[in-house]
Write a structure and sequence with these properties.
By secondary structure, the chain is of the alpha/beta class. The protein contains nine helices and seven strands. The chain has a single domain, classed as Di-copper center containing domain from catechol oxidase (di-copper center containing domain from catechol oxidase, Orthogonal Bundle). The structure holds CU-O-CU linkage. Keywords: Copper, Disulfide bond, Metal-binding, Oxidoreductase, Thioether bond.
Length: 346
């Protein structure tokens, strides 16, 4: 049986790494998601390749989102709380209707990881697009799987605190221009040269993607099955473990319990979160498109549900199945970006 959508009325304060935060959204009438009518696909660009016009547009959109009233569920802070609520023990569902047993909803370390984050970015992008009245707006992705993208993308640092894309809580050392991102980072910087780190990163990407592409064990890619009644976090897939987790830790400020990016409750308070996750989502896209792999076909996965506020402040019920085809959601990733880790060399 699939994991049901949370009941927002029973949302509680967080219980995990950071206890007692109130990340609960308001509860209101729920509508069911319907696929949009798609005329042209929006293209998500690599963050290090965007032009000035794109940057200005993106900044304006984030600025408008930050300036929305505090009680607007589309407000930047409230959007960050969506992640907090789904990750830190705020949501429960009745796992047994007879004895009142409840189980937590957790979207990490299981097969809900890819679809939850795809939906999260989808609505976030629709909100930004609506705010700047540009239906073609598409989020940038942090191209950490390519040598030219293995840095903190400069657009998030440019202009420092005067920019809505800036965040104070990032690792001071790693935010320096041209400091190479180590996809295997585990709280200490390696003594390797920049070129060695980049080559290692490409080997890591090759291994993580190809070892999960044989079709024999879909858990390697998606993470372990997580059904109604199961304990949360049964196990993560390859990319979630490495490099997804490492990039979070690498970006967060070690002096502030790794806020923002290095901790689940705070990660989405940094606008860079959405560029990081666009690339995680792109790995799912490439796994199907370039490595010709197929999604899980079990209903326990396909019918799992989530709730999100959309660009019109409506609370929408979505399921995993509706997220599988990015064409139907109306977006794609820039296909001109070279995928270096696909080379046999690695
Ligand atoms: Cu929901 Cu990258 O974490």
């Amino acid at each position: 049986v699939p994991i049901p959508a949370p009941d927002l009325k029973t949302c509680v304060r967080t219980t995990e790494d950071m206890k007692g935060l109130n990340c609960c959204p308001p509860s209101t009438e729920i509508i069911n998601f319907e696929l949009p009518e798609v005329k042209t696909l929006r293209t998500r660009p690599a963050a290090h390749t965007v032009d000035q016009k794109y940057i200005e547009n993106y900044k304006t959109a984030i600025e408008l989102m930050k300036n929305l009233p505090e009680d607007d569920p589309r407000n930047f802070w409230n959007q960050a709380q969506v992640h907090c609520a789904y990750c830190e023990g705020a949501y429960y569902y009745a796992s047994n209707d007879c004895d009142g047993t409840k189980e937590e909803i957790q979207v990490h370390s299981s097969w809900l990881f890819y679809p939850f984050h795809r939906w999260y970015l989808y609505f976030y992008e629709r909100i930004l697009a609506k705010l700047i009245k540009d239906p073609n707006f598409a989020l940038p992705f942090w191209n950490w799987d390519g040598k030219d993208g293995m840095y903190l993308p400069p657009i998030f640092e440019e202009g420092r605190s005067s920019s809505p894309l800036f965040d104070h809580y990032r690792n001071a050392k790693h935010r320096k221009e041209k400091f190479v991102l180590d996809l295997n980072y585990n709280c200490t910087d390696s003594g390797k040269t920049d070129e060695e780190i980049k080559e290692d990163n490409l080997c890591t990407m090759h291994r993580q993607m190809y070892s999960a592409s044989t079709g024999k064990d879909l858990r390697l890619f998606f993470g372990h099955p997580y059904r109604k009644g199961d304990k949360p976090s049964p196990g993560a897939g390859n990319i979630e473990r490495i490099p997804h987790n490492n990039v979070h830790i690498w970006t967060g400020d070690p002096d502030w319990v790794r806020e923002d990016m290095g901790n689940l409750y705070s990660a989405a308070r940094d606008p860079i979160f959405f560029a990081h996750h666009a690339n995680v989502d792109r790995m799912w896209y490439l796994w199907k498109k370039e490595l010709h792999c197929k999604d899980i076909s079990q209903d326990d996965w396909l019918k799992a549900e989530f709730l999100f506020y959309n660009e019109n402040k409506q609370l929408v019920r979505v399921n995993v199945e509706q997220s599988l085809d990015t064409d139907k959601l109306g977006y794609k990733y820039d296909d001109d970006v070279d995928i270096e880790w696909m080379s046999n060399k690695y």
